[in-house]
Design goal:
Largest sheet: 4 strands, antiparallel
Coiled coil: 184-211
Strand order of the largest sheet: 4-3-6-9
Shape: rod-shaped
Domain Band: 30-195
Protein name: SPFH domain-containing protein
Pfam families: Band_7
Structural class: alpha+beta
Keywords: Coiled coil
Distance between the termini: 193 Å
């Protein structure tokens, strides 16, 4: 709003850098521009004040998708007046020369124009999409359609930016969709839980199989150890028996050879006695007998004992 000071018969206007002032007096353009400060006569002056700063226009409206589902579109349009002369010619931006306030509500008129035009382009693109597509990709499509088709140069405005905040279904449909997604997510979570449990069971089974396999392998090794110990004991016994047999055979061989030697000696002795006269043998026999008899202090030989001996020797 322009700052107007009142004086008798005169007024003083002080503008701002963000508003464009047009001063027409008796049909002639006297002042025009931003940041102006001038005197004027209130009875003949026609003043217009056009904001030239960036303005944001939030919108919230309903639309219907291709599958007849209602959605709510929330977006914001940023615009700026770039042609104040055209804007003042199409929209009433005139201000009261005494108070500096707008006589009408030009910003509401601009808002209505931009809202209706924006809704037209948004409804057109959303009418070709089903609900699922509109929720997933509708934000970007609506933004692109509005940005490409929305123009306001016929009223001296330039569209700076289009921001689509959200496209949402009605509360019941959104709840249903959330339930569906929630159920799907829950199913995925349950699936992950089941898979995790199955993996745990599989790991436990694998561990049990490994333990059983280790026990089997250990039992086999123990069996091999027992067999090896038995084989070692058997070999040791066989070696001991073989050594005993060798020792017994050696001992028997020694005894045999000794017996053979004794027999040979006895034979040689007997062979030596073959050439000795019989009487000599008897004498030797008596001598040997006498050597083997116990000690005798005295012996008495009677004729009846000596006679037979002498007869034998005489033969």
């Amino acid at each position: 709003m322009a700052d107007i000071s009142r004086y008798p018969g005169l007024r003083h206007l002080r503008g701002a850098l963000t508003v464009h002032i047009r001063h027409v007096d008796k049909g002639k353009l006297i002042h025009e521009g931003t940041g102006l400060s001038f005197w004027f006569r209130p009875r003949t002056a026609v003043l217009s004040e056009v904001p030239v700063d960036d303005r944001e226009l939030p919108m919230l409206f309903h639309a219907r998708t291709h599958d007849y589902q209602d959605v709510t579109v929330q977006l914001t349009i940023t615009y700026r007046c770039t042609d104040p002369e055209t804007a003042t010619a199409r929209i009433d931006f005139s201000i009261d020369p005494d108070t500096g306030t707008w006589r009408q509500d030009p910003l509401s008129q601009i808002a209505n124009t931009l809202t209706e035009s924006t809704q037209q382009h948004a409804l057109k693109i959303l009418g070709t999409l089903n609900l699922d597509t509109a929720i997933r990709t509708g934000v970007e499509r609506v933004k692109q359609a509005v940005a490409e088709n929305l123009t306001a140069d016929h009223i001296g405005l330039e569209i700076i930016d289009v921001r689509v905040v959200a496209i949402r279904p009605d509360a019941d449909m959104e709840k249903a969709l959330q339930t569906t997604v929630r159920e799907k997510v829950q199913q995925e979570a349950d699936k992950a839980t089941y898979e995790r449990r199955a993996m745990a069971v599989e790991r436990e089974r694998s561990i049990s199989e490994n333990e059983l396999q280790n026990q089997i392998e250990l039992a086999k090794r123990e069996e091999l150890l027992v067999v090896q110990r038995g084989a070692n004991a058997l070999k040791k016994a066989e070696d001991h028996a073989r050594a005993s047999r060798v020792a017994d055979d050696a001992k028997a061989e020694g005894i045999r050879k000794l017996a053979e030697a004794e027999a040979a000696g006895e034979k040689a002795r007997l062979d030596a006695y073959k050439e000795v006269p019989q009487e000599t043998l008897y004498a030797l026999a008596v001598k040997e007998l006498a050597g083997n008899l116990p000690e005798i202090g005295s012996i008495t030989l009677t004729p009846d004992l000596i006679q037979p001996l002498l007869q034998r020797l005489a033969r």
